[in-house]
Amino acid sequence: MVFSSNIFLFFFLPIFLVLYFLTPKKFRNYTLLLFSLVFYAYGAPDFLLLLVGECVVNYYLVNGMVKAKRGKKLFCAASILISLGLLLYFKYAGFIIENLSRLPLLTSHLSSLTSHLSAIVLPIGISFFTFQSLTYTLDVYRGVTPPSKKLTDYVLYIMMFPQLIAGPIVNYNTVAEQLVSRESTMENRVVGFYRFVIGLSKKVLIANTMALYADQVFGMNYAQLSTGSAWLGILAYTMQIYFDFSGYSDMAIGLGMIMGFRFPENFNDPYTSKSITEFWKRWHITLGSFIMNYLYIPLGGNRKGKGRTYLNLWLCFLLSGLWHGASWTFVLWGAYHGLFICLDKLFKVKGERIKVKGERYLSTLTSQLSTFFIVMMGWVLFRADNIAGAGGYYAALFSFRSGLSGNADALFWSTLVLALLFSFLTLFKGGQRLQNLIFAEHYSKRLSWVMFAICLVLLVLSTGSLCVTDFNPFIYFRF
Predict the structure, then answer these.
(1) 98 alpha carbon, distance to own chain's centre
(2) In the chain, pLDDT over 70 holds for what percent of residues?
(3) Residue 284 annotated to the active site
(4) Which pLDDT does position 421 carry in this prediction?
(5) Which of the residues 109, 116, 284, 324 is marked catalytic?
(6) Considering only CA atoms, which of 300, 263, 302, 303 is closest in space to residue 285?
(7) I need a surface site. Which of 3, 169, 334, 438 has the fewest CB within 10 A?
(8) What is the DSSP string of 33-65?
(9) Residue 291's closest CA among 329, 324, 317, 269?
(10) Domain spans of the chain, in order of start
(11) Residue 168 preceded by cis peptide, ω within 30
(12) From CA 196, how far away is CA 14, in angstroms rounded?
């Protein structure tokens, strides 16, 4: 079940909200936990007991770690191994064995195992709830936060349906107090509703329209694909993945606000970045924070010389790529971004050295365009099915040939213009002010009515679109 589905919008969410707010405050966590279990069971019933079981085992291991006078590291290691072990088995075992089986000495021994592992179904949202369980264990071990006092609160932290499937990744210490006590004012609910509808419209009205064209182009024979359509196809995918993922994050944050939770922001106009380093501070912010705090810094960060700093950065992004999927295209995508992160560090030029206003403007514009180009070229690796396919698509981009073309209708062109406008809105005068207004947490009475009218129109358009088509892909659904 995803947020942008009829069953969620017309059945699950209304029933949940009515029962949630009818429940006395001290019992609302149980209502939320129950509906979170139903939400997950609807999409992956076979894995529900496994996920709950992992939560229970991890909860008691961490509690044992806190109480133990000796062997704290063993408890911590056991908790981490269980979380990572499940992730490795379900997400990467098939990939690892498949590649090992290509070695001549191992082919005959691993062939049967390869066929078995290839049939493994990936539990929905396994990467996100694994990350959250890891942050809980490590933060408690480091003394950043005390452990949860109630098992049900910990299970709710891991399985809370707004952020279970695709984030944002929430550190336990940021919501620990909210799990125990939170206030949901009428303003919280109204603003949360606005945020949810804005995210829904980004996903349904923009991302889905872009996906139709992108899927059409990426489904063609790249050897016969025209260069114009290839460029339009990757531009459509660039818009699709941003509005798909950021829209889902907006919906998650909005749902959290309705219930009184404060989830971290996950996107901040990433396509306006002036470098790949800045892009990763604006794109999937909670993943970047996780990598920084739980991988880059433990590896040594920048404390062990420039060479080690570059290696640590590159390794972090290599693993980030692998986290997105068990495929060499994702590994190359991570290595690609890691390379440009290192180049940013190596050739960084301080903006204050540019004195002339015109030169500063030209430098900023050039940086933004080049960064957007680099990001868009990286999305080819992210979207392609395999390395050969990525190579074929790159060839189509730069062959300057005519050939097969996608069907770009008026709806696509108008949506693409809107997508580009909202992606780069803050570059225009007054754009930042307008965006701050759209995503404000407080509205005047008059503006509240304006926002309500706008959101009502967007809600009708979004639900209407979902009712007339079954096409509703979600890129991060099984990450």
Answers:
(1) 27
(2) 92
(3) no
(4) 95
(5) 324
(6) 263
(7) 438
(8) HHHHHHHHHHH-GGGHHHHHHHHHHHHHHHHHH
(9) 317
(10) 26-181, 188-267+349-468
(11) yes
(12) 13
